[in-house]
């Protein structure tokens, strides 16, 4: 039974030579949270398979997929979001990606002779892409309506909280980017902020609405404890951790309280980010500009906001039908039944 072992200053270990070497290798390439996620995925895989890496075959991988799809809490319990009983397809796909990466490493090292994780369920001769091992349905994320956004902002109690929510709702920053913002990152003269802790370690400079700087000035003047010595912008305002950097749990608690007071059923940090880019697209902002604002490495990730935007598809459809109406005669409608 593999056990995760943590030693300060070192990557996590599972007690298996080649898996631990892979984790040491990947720790030099990825951020700590990504390494931790990979270590947990590998722990789950080898717990289920019960074999060392050199003994894993394709049949073991397929059996692992079946096991992950089994009901977690009995046959009568399903997730409301997708009606499924086992783990989410996206979770299984992520774990398979981690296992695939491990065996790619072992192939490069000459430890294994072949990759046990099949690329697809269809022979390559029949299809270039093949049928995926796990089908993960693509669902559109939730966004806030203009009324919900106004209600949420009105339910916030401090200028600190208004500044943080403004960064997510009107500039599209991630939760970790808001919490990692430093005083030196504020570019007041240009109306921008420097994001140095973006996803994957990427940096970018993004413009921010004037309202953020108004809330920020009020927070720094009247709320931020003068004795705190951290360079981070957002800190705890009261309690035993007063003056210390605000945590992710603390920001989530702020949003949960505001949601309750505003009577909203949803308004997570990531939903605020989705709302920002949806509204920017509705206002006509180019996808490439939204990509730069969001810090997306791939434009395909940004294309989701085409579908979240209410007017884009309808406008495209009406323009196309207008062209077609000039080619084909109009359809005469008969009497309705």
Automatic annotation (TrEMBL):
Domain Tyr recombinase residue range list: 139-318
Keyword NAD: no
Domain Core-binding (CB), residue spans: 13-107
Positions in coiled-coil regions: none
Superkingdom: Bacteria
Alphabetized UniProt keyword annotations: DNA recombination, DNA-binding
Gene3D superfamilies found in the cross-reference section: 1.10.150.130, Intergrase catalytic core
Family, as annotated: Belongs to the 'phage' integrase family.
PROSITE patterns, alphabetized: CB, TYR_RECOMBINASE
Keyword DNA-binding (UniProt): yes
Name under which the protein is recorded: Integrase
